Amino acid sequence: MNTSILLLIVGMAVVTYIPRMLPLTLLEGKELPEFLQSVLRNIPYAVLGALIFPGILLIREGDIWFGLVGAAAAFTLAIAGANVMVVVIGSILLLSLYHLMI
Amino acid sequence: MQAAAASSQRSEFKSGLHAGMSIAVGYMPIALTFGLLAKTTGLSLAETVLMSLLVFAGASQYISLSLIAAGVGIAVIIFNTFIVNIRHFLMSASLNEKMEKDSLGKKALYAFGLTDETFSVIATREGKSTTSFAFGVMLIAYGSWVINSGIGHLIGASLPVFLQAAMSIALYAMFVGLLIPSVKKSVKVFYLALTAGALNSILTLSGALEAGWSIIAATLVSSIIVEVVLLARRRAGF
């Protein structure tokens, strides 16, 4: 194994692990101010919004329709009450069909 | 008592594995392609699998390949990796509010498995999340990531073009599937996601911020603004 690649991988591993680990361990058992707690509890839903948009519309460069069809499929299935796995598989199937048709 | 605790841990772990299945599916095309690209960049099979084993971060692993190919120095690639993953500070702090109390050793161990996707699944679960549940979600996601990186390198090809394209929706569809049930229950969740999604779109599409930073900015601003507005409205008696 190439030493400099090995060094690179270990370095990347360390700097990736630090932000994942520090808050979970340093904040264990600490009671944060109520406002901060509320903000931290909001984060998962805000993150989901930011992870979905605009990314979902840009999954295929130069073809916004591909993203729109995929997004429409995912939102329709989810709003209809399908569980997460069904939303995922359903959206993949629908986009495969769409891809084969055009 | 102990037997009951062990069996509830087992069932929590199993429901974690189950909840992580959609991540495993979503990681498949990305990891296969990563393995393939790593091979074309000149990494050996062992190096490719080792990187996925130790780093376990999709975006930074992809970026590192293009930087290696461009002949960029190790220190710069490592620094870049750190920048791309700064958003995990935020997720780790938020996850801490969600998780049951546990020993620092266990928390330091499952912290390794924190990604955008595992965080989304664990943090949107109803009620508190348990350590066993987190381990389940992370283990199946990690397994898919590592194994598929290796397979991508070994077979030197990714999925058929139409499936590859269609599967690029997988993780986004998962995020949608995680978000919508909470939106149905709480209008606050709707405002949070809408504000963050709109902000992130403006920030990335205008080129104001790079994707990593704009996710952090959009998430923080939306989480704070929505909280302040709702507090103000409650105080005003609405």
From TrEMBL, chain A:
The chain crosses the membrane at residues 6-27, 39-59, 65-98. It holds the Pfam family AzlD. InterPro entries: Brnchd-chn_aa_trnsp_AzlD. It comes from the Bacteria. This is Branched-chain amino acid transporter. Keywords: Membrane, Transmembrane, Transmembrane helix.
TrEMBL record, chain B:
It comes from the Bacteria. InterPro entries: Brnchd-chn_aa_trnsp_permease. The chain crosses the membrane at residues 17-38, 69-90, 133-155, 161-180, 189-209, 215-232. Pfam families: AzlC. Coiled coil: none annotated. Keywords: Cell membrane, Membrane, Transmembrane, Transmembrane helix, Transport. One of its GO terms (biological process) is L-valine transmembrane transport. One of its GO terms (cellular component) is plasma membrane. The keyword Membrane applies. It is found in: Cell membrane. It is a multi-pass membrane protein. Belongs to the AzlC family. PANTHER family: INNER MEMBRANE PROTEIN YGAZ. This is Branched-chain amino acid ABC transporter permease. It comes from Jeotgalibacillus proteolyticus.
